[in-house]
Structure formats: C-alpha cells, structure tokens
Amino acid sequence: MSESPSELKTLKEIAETLNQGNDLQIVLNEVLKKLLDLTGFKTGWIFLVADNGTFELAAHSALPEALSWENCRLMCDSNCYCIDQYWNGRLKSATNIINCERIYHAIKQKTGDTEGITHHATVPLRDQKKRFGLLNVASPNKNQYSEKELALLEAVALQIGTAVKRIRLSEIEQQNVVLKERNRLAQDLHDSVNQILFSISLTAKAARETTLDESLLEQLNFIQLLSRDALAEMKSLIWELRSEGLKNGIVEAIENYASLIGLPVELTVTGSIALSAKEEELIWRITQEALNNCKKHSQADKAFVTIISLKGQLLLEIEDFGIGFRYDPDAQIHSLGIKGMEDRTKKYGGKFSVKTAKNKGTKIRVALPIISPEKEEKGS
Ligand SMILES: Nc1ncnc2c1ncn2[C@@H]1O[C@H](COP(=O)(O)OP(=O)(O)OP(=O)(O)O)[C@@H](O)[C@H]1O
Ligand SMILES: [Mg+2]
Tens of pLDDT along 96-106? Predict the structure, then answer.
C-alpha cells in the first residue's frame, strides 16, 4: 500500500509523539489526541489487555458525556463487542464495530449525551509478534469506516504497539537498575560499616586482655556487646535491602540475583510447589545469603540450587564444589550469615545443616514443613 502525503504526515507525527516519553499513560493520551487532531475523528480510547485477559482503559480523549459519566464507569465495567472479539481471537485487523455496546448501555441507563456516537472502529494494538490491546475511534453519526481509514488506523496501531513494547522494556530495565543499586548499597554497607563494627568489636576484645581494671573491663565488654548488636542490626538491614525482587516469584528472583552478583547458577525445581508468602520469603533470603557466600568464599565458578517439595516437606539445597570452609577464628565473631540462615530456619520449625569438606565444596540444606497458604491465613 502506498500512503498519500497526508497519511505519511500522520504516521510521521504519530511516530514523533510516541518517541517523546517513557510514561505509558502520558504517551498514550498524547498520541490519541494527536491522532484525533490529524484524522478528524471525534473521540478515541485505548484498552490495554493483560495476558490473563483483564483489560484497563489506558487512555481516552474527547469521550461523549454518556461515556465519560462517573469517571468512565461504563468504559471500565461493562463489555463491548470489541473486547469480546479480541478475547475470542477474531479481531485480527482494523474492523468496523457494528454498534458500540457501551453506548447502548449508556442510552439505557441515561448517563448523558452520546453526542451522536453510535459506532466505532476498532484495531488491535500489537507489535510484530503479540497483541496486547485495542485502539478505538469514533465520530458522530459515522457508522462506516473506509478501507483507507482502517488501513491508516492499522498502521498507527502498529506504531503504538511497538512503542508500548519499548516503554515496557524500559520500565523493566529501570527496575533492574534499582535492584542493582539496592544490591550495591547492601554490598557497600556490608563491606564498609560492617567491617568497622567488626574492628571495634575485635579491638574491644583485645583491649580486655590488657587490663585488670574491673570498671574498664565492664566498659570494654559493653562496647563489644554494642558493636555486636550493631552488626546484627546492620545485617538485618542488609537482608531487607536484598529482599526486593521477589515480585515475580522465587525462580525469577533467584535467577535475577545470580546474574546480579555474577555467579552462574543451575536451578532445579521438582514437584508442584504452592508456597506461602512466608515460605517464599524464607527460601529467598536463605538462598541469597548462601549464593553470596559461594561468590565470596568458595572460589567455585558455579552454584547449584535445588528446591524439592516432597510429602509436606520442602527441601532447599545450595551447593558449590569450591574450596570448602577454612578455619577462621575471627569469623566466629562477626559472621552472621550462617547463623542468620540457621536461626530463621529453626524459627520456622525447620532443620538446617551445613556440609563442607576441604576442596570438595559446601552444601547448605534446609528442610521446612510446608504450611499451605490457607492454613497460614487461618492461623495468623
Ligand atoms: N560456600 C562457602 N565456601 C567456602 N567457605 C564458606 C562458604 N560459606 C561460608 N563459608 C565460610 O564460613 C564463614 C561464615 O559464613 P557467614 O556467611 O556466616 O559469614 P560471612 O560471609 O563471612 O560474613 P557475613 O556475616 O557477611 O555473612 C565465612 O567467613 C567463610 O569462611
Ligand atoms: Mg555470609
């Protein structure tokens, strides 16, 4: 199809508008206004449809009173043939919708002036691969859209679809940057403040050996206790900072974390696991700490994480084939990672064990009783 100069101008201006921002809602509203200006259609609206089939009114412009009634209630609550056709897969290209079901409801419910709108044209929003919404336009007393108009709408819908995809990808990128930053902050706190507190604790310990003065001993003891408490506080803050990222489930969280810290991880999940939020959080935090340890101490170039659900039990193993534990007397004082994993597991009624052998590697094993989410809700 060869576009006329005015169509080319429309496509060019739409492309420019779409390139002007990264906020989906603002961009969609702007582009809709621009489309109406350029084409002369009176009103338009965009639905975004999620993978689970739910739809949201993502943008609208110059809706008649009957449809903008009560904060666009009819646009959000009731259905229309366009959404039905989208759902049943019949809406493949730009189409004339015979009449708008929402307008029909609006007239029945007397929600206001329809401003002559009875029909709309509808086009699926898509990129090259996937559909993810609808663009609708309408004009007063217009019940037929020409082939040319529909072809233009289709080209615009493809442009909008590609922009929606670009914006969504940039949102994901943005979230990853935030996650990375939180992780870096956690690491910095760990490496700087933790080390200072650790030194205070060690210095107080050493100073105690040099005096017999009772009151001085007491104060040094106090300093040691305080710095230990501060270390524990710091550690829990670091756990908090790292706990972001669980939104899309444990598997994605572990994979993302592994790539954030630059440690290849082979993850195996066996059995169907419906974890409660508490279980998921516990597994996530333990896995993070164990992977962190692999990265920091094991010298292994890979870690293996296995999650198995078996007869009301959940087994989590994090294994590496690195150098194994080296005896470090200082680590007894400041190391809170393993202790944190063990305490949290026991608090949950589970069993915790560490197996380690020189130059053979380390395996952390956690066995948890699974509490179904319903039981947990009733119990809590
Ligand atoms: N996968 C591993 N391979 C080799 N050594 C390990 C491994 N995991 C832990 N260790 C050893 O066990 C010690 C205790 O680990 P732990 O996680 O409790 O403390 P940490 O990592 O030194 O400090 P932090 O309190 O920041 O976690 C480590 O200092 C390290 O010597
Ligand atoms: Mg550790």
Answer: 776 788 888 88
Domains of the chain: 5-169 (3.30.450.40), 248-380 (3.30.565.10)
3-state secondary structure of 103: helix
- pTM value is 0.56
Furthest-apart CA pair in the chain: how many Å? 99
Pocket test for ligand 1, best of 201, 237, 317, 335 (most atoms within 8 A of CB): 335
Whose CA is closest to 100, among 155, 31, 47, 52?
47
Residues with CB under 6 A from ligand 1: 190, 235, 293-294, 296-298, 320, 322-326, 328, 331, 335-338, 362
For residue 374, the model assigns a pLDDT of 42
**Distance (Å) from CA 253 to ligand 2 centroid:** 19
- Residue 209 vs residues 223, 229, 303: alpha-carbon distances, Å: 14, 21, 42
User: What pLDDT, in 10s, does the model give residues 104-144?
Assistant: 888 888 889 889 998 889 999 988 778 889 999 999 998 88
Ligand 1 centre to CA of 332 (Å) is: 10
pLDDT higher at 378 or 94: 94
Decide if 336 contacts 245 (C-beta within 8 A): no
Q: Measure the CA–CA gap between 137 and 123, rounded to whole angstroms.
A: 9
d(CA 227, CA 197): 6
Mean pLDDT of 233-246: 72
Query: How many whole angstroms separate alpha carbon 209 and alpha carbon 32?
Result: 76
